[in-house]
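**Folding the chain**
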Amino acid sequence: MRIVCLVPSVTELLCDLGLSEEIVGRTGFCIHPWETVRTIPKVGGTKDVKLDRVRELAPTHVVVNVEENRKEDAEALAEFVPDVVVTHPRAPRDNLDLYRQMGAAFDREREAEELCWRFEEAYERAAASAGEPRDVLYLIWRDPWMTVAPDTYISQTLALFNWHTVQPLPDACPRYEDKRRYPEVDLADFAGVDEVLLSSEPFHFKDRHRDEVASLVPGAAVSLIDGEMTSWYGSRAIAGLDYLAGFTAR
């Protein structure tokens, strides 16, 4: 097998399934586990795949994601790659299907079931740690400010801990009426929210941004949060659930 993976979290998952030697290409955002992937050739980004470079690597499989990769790239890859493996987890428990999908596709069923067992344990710990309901504004971008829709993996993961992502009013953000999954928002519309979470990705919020947001959403707690632990499915989701259990219990 010769695998090109265009999904950062799945690249890590494939490595944890024992497939690192079969991975011949990755995106520049596939950074875990670094000591393993740093020598694997890059084929562009998740949204700007270098198709000619992928062709040169002669993969037998390419792994893509419905949300992270462009449909037109997946269709172009299907013209010369024998197997295009499509992933689309949208909630924490979808990881079980993802593990088994990768296990079946790449002959790693036993390793996949071991991950499922570890995930189930982490999920039980997470569910037991859920506290009182909190309304949170989860920001992923600045200039413009952007948040996440309720049907995203991030929102569904936070909901497990009783943290509910608040949404912009349609009249305040017309774009949201188009069901955009990452709508632009005006922070002035979120007075009274319990907490604002500033993700480390895709925009890398820092301490100075926390002070800025605190001045724009008075009364709300403002915290930096590790975006990989909320948005990366795959094997990292196991550590992510334990991370969030500690984070929400502060």
